[in-house]
Amino acid sequence: MSDFFLVRDDGFHPFDGAEPVSLAPDVDPASLGDYLNHDLLAIEFPSFSDGRGFTLARLLREKGYKGRLRAVGGLIADQYAMARRVGFDEVRISAALAQRQPQEQWLYRADWQQWDHRSRLAG
Known about the structure:
Strand content: 15-25%
Oligomer: single chain
């Protein structure tokens, strides 16, 4: 059994073992253009309270990044919808976190497109 799972909109998936180019949360946003040609990027979240990775994901997508974007580290199920809205395709979680926050908790937030509060306020 792997030490990790990948969370996607349809639930938990076995960790694929892919080693993406990894971006620290303090990477210079001006350098993000250097990463646009990679097929898989990971943005690190040192803890669930560090939201810099959300901004980096949004900036990458705004710059035209088309590859797969993975959040790794300290995200929790409550943050899944936000991660998807800013451009992440998946979240890598530890097996220990999967035990504490089972698939049902992540799936509950997988309807992320219906719960975009900013769009509702703007509309």
